Write the structure tokens for this entry.
Amino acid sequence: MSPLENDTLLRALLREPTGYTPVWLMRQAGRYLPEYNETRRRAGSFLALAKTPALATEVTLQPLERFPLDAAILFSDILTVPDAMGLGLYFAEGEGPKFERPVRDEADVAKLAVPDPGAELRYVTDAVAEIRRALAGRVPLIGFSGSPYTLACYMVEGGGSDDFRVVKSMLYRRPDLLHRILDVNARAVTAYLNAQVAAGAQALMIFDTWGGSLAHDAFRTFSLAYIERVVAGLVRESEGRRVPSIVFTKGGGQWLEAIAATGCDAVGLDWTTDLGEARRRVGARVALQGNLDPAVLFADAESVRREAGKVLASFGRGHGHVFNLGHGISQFTPPESVAALVAAVHELSRPWHA
Amino acid sequence: MSPLENDTLLRALLREPTGYTPVWLMRQAGRYLPEYNETRRRAGSFLALAKTPALATEVTLQPLERFPLDAAILFSDILTVPDAMGLGLYFAEGEGPKFERPVRDEADVAKLAVPDPGAELRYVTDAVAEIRRALAGRVPLIGFSGSPYTLACYMVEGGGSDDFRVVKSMLYRRPDLLHRILDVNARAVTAYLNAQVAAGAQALMIFDTWGGSLAHDAFRTFSLAYIERVVAGLVRESEGRRVPSIVFTKGGGQWLEAIAATGCDAVGLDWTTDLGEARRRVGARVALQGNLDPAVLFADAESVRREAGKVLASFGRGHGHVFNLGHGISQFTPPESVAALVAAVHELSRPWHA
């Protein structure tokens, strides 16, 4: 492997000194980029894109060609793990992801097993290895997975949901069943993330996209407890360096102390949380990642710069901040806004690190 | 007006002693009730139902016939005010509310004016008066409005949204325009709520449904500041009693202290906030309303009872709690679950008030 030229992200995630605040964007390889849409068209479908290592590599690197971002993140789908469990992932036109065989009862749950990352998920680890070669040490590569509860939402609902009626009915009626699913998911996610590290991932992120839809006590029991198990099972070092882990619960601002106590190195924040307050609450224990409202990128370059400056000022002087959006970048974002954002973060953050 | 037989809600909202915890449910007159669907069918459309005082009265009282709830809430739509401003509210089949003439630029904003509650919104105050007569003092009647920012979301987007791209673009590009809309909305909402009180409403609730989609600082500037102006302009007393006000920002758990400082009497909470912690944070200043996850009502009666008990225990001993869901009741709720919930709250709360 080539030596890492820019390790700012890895140092920031471990709260080590850096000369500026590193920046990357959730979903940075995505539909706001015309070149991404072109590759996707060539692939034929989103799933073909995610499942073909050469194409996943191509789109992973696209945003780095345009913007001086401080990290690459594996291009993949959040639902690869349940798909590898045999649930039959597909994308209905304009409807988002669906499963042919959702998990609804005892019999469905009994059939679940931890997939072998070296077999059913080989296309992911192959992509990780190919991306690392293509990156040639420019910036670190972040691997990722959905959280056990977030995966369970899709597995039980059979797709997306706006009220989580099916999975929450199971949670309140048959918590034992949901716990069995979450147990399998936690083991599967741990093995999956560790396989990504073995293939070359240099940092890891757990996306707890739907943990924030839970009641405060249910969040701890059904989402956080399993994230904690995943984090505890992660490989700590690879290639002679620590592999930092980031946990991001969308809508989890009220639970930061608990999330920071999972053993992760960094906590992701959405834009509803004041970064400075979050730092006072948990910044002595973890790095913080976030948290610009992605909607700011719909504004002009001057507003983007001003709002980015506010996020940096909110974190304040010192280290341990990774700049990001508070959620994935919108497909309607003008790429010029991203250029303005990355430039602003790099420039405006230097005084805070002096 | 008939004397009030059950004023438990009003006393709880003012943190006065009560023998048990009063309970009502957001959207309690709604599609989970077959009799509601029957009246709606007769009305021809949702808007006809909301705009015909006799029918609005009929559906407002329906849940009270089934369940011993401690309050009625005016049946109406959240968008009556912008409709009265001439934006042309309509409901596209299966798509939710839309406006024919959304507010997008200087010229649109210049045309906005505060509607006269006694003219364009007369059907609402007529409904309030008719409901009061029909209630004949059984329980108090709650009037309501959307918050200035929540109304602005619909007015600028032209309907619902999952990313608020249009209104947030205005917020970051042309904050001056959005402030002008919010100024009109704040005056309109104040006049509207006061007209409801004049017609007979005995408590008021401001639904800040979309304030929680804002970044923490934008929430204060664009939502909370205008809620504060509305609350400051509300009539404090009617029929010789204080008219308590409730502010509910969905997703506002991180901002409770600020919401409690608006001058309202009570703060609504969604289910992501620990009620006991909320009480420690702001319970000396305001009553708290909430906060069961509406999804609990999809479970069996025993689970409903257990989860209701947990909410009551979380608030703990003493007064100043109004039991509610953390969001509107789902149309898929079995009415038996509501019966179980109301019975559980009434029974299980007594020891906490002893």
Remarks:
- Chain A touches chain B at residues 163-165, 168-169, 171-173, 212, 214-219, 251, 253-254, 271-274, 292-296, 298-300, 303, 307, 310, 326, 330, 332 (CB under 8 Å).
- Residues 175-199 of chain A form the longest helix (25 residues).
- The two ends of chain A are 32 Å apart (CA to CA).
- DSSP finds 15 helices and eleven strands in chain A.
